[in-house]
Write a structure and sequence with these properties.
Layout lengths: L20 H11 L7 H14 L3 E7 L3 E8 L6 E4 L8 E4 L4 E3 L5 H7 L3 E3 L6 H4 L2 H6 L3 E8 L5 E9 L6 H19 L7
Antiparallel strand pairs: 1-2, 1-8, 2-5, 3-4, 6-7, 7-8
């Protein structure tokens, strides 16, 4: 695995090189995925969020330059998320995650390149991930994601959940996210089910 050099922002941002991105982008385009919100995928994200008790759940398709959340469950507050840092005396208002993110934001690009699930119980414990923009910009502190790998072996994207607080996802969380990814990929690819 090769990582791009850190960006000149003073942060340790190591976005993995993704040699499959052009082929993945073509595959997603051929499947009609990754360009617009999908109500069925929003419902899937809602179910995933409820199942694991997380404020965020996503079905994320990753292209060459960006990520697109075709399925998205966000906290109920309309435009912002209010959270209280441990030990802080005041609430901090954070923007809500939208449908698009640059490829160097978040943890899903790592899942796609690794082709393995990723469990981050507290992202601040990992220097590679602690400096990621979603930690500061959106207040994300924990992440759990698994790749969506089709029958041709292409990692199309991820299913993932994120929380504002550190979470001990444990083996049960890992098994749940992997099972949900397997369930969904069977619905995304023609001949394996329908969306």
């Amino acid at each position: 695995m090769i990582y791009d050099p850190p960006r000149p922002a003073g942060r340790l941002l190591l976005t993995p090189e993704d040699s499959d991105a052009p082929a993945r982008t073509r595959r997603l385009h051929g499947l009609g995925l990754g360009e617009r919100p999908e109500p069925a995928l929003d419902a899937f994200a809602d179910r995933l969020a409820e199942l694991v008790g997380a404020p965020y759940a996503m079905v994320n398709f990753i292209g060459e330059e960006r990520q697109f959340f075709a399925g998205l469950h966000v906290p109920g507050d309309a435009d912002t998320v209010r959270r209280r840092d441990a030990g802080a005396d005041s609430e901090e208002v954070k923007p809500r995650v939208g449908r698009r993110l640059p490829r160097d934001h978040g943890f899903c690009p790592h899942v796609v390149v690794r082709r393995k699930a990723l469990v981050l119980e507290d992202v601040r414990d990992y220097p590679r991930f602690a400096g990621n923009p979603i930690v500061d910009e959106f207040g994300i502190r924990s992440y759990l994601g698994a790749p969506l790998i089709d029958t041709a072996g292409m990692a199309l994207g991820t299913v993932c959940v994120a929380d504002f607080e550190p979470r001990p996802w444990g083996r049960a969380g890992l098994e749940t996210i992997k099972a949900m990814a397997a369930e969904l990929v069977g619905q995304l690819v023609p001949g394996e089910g329908t969306l």
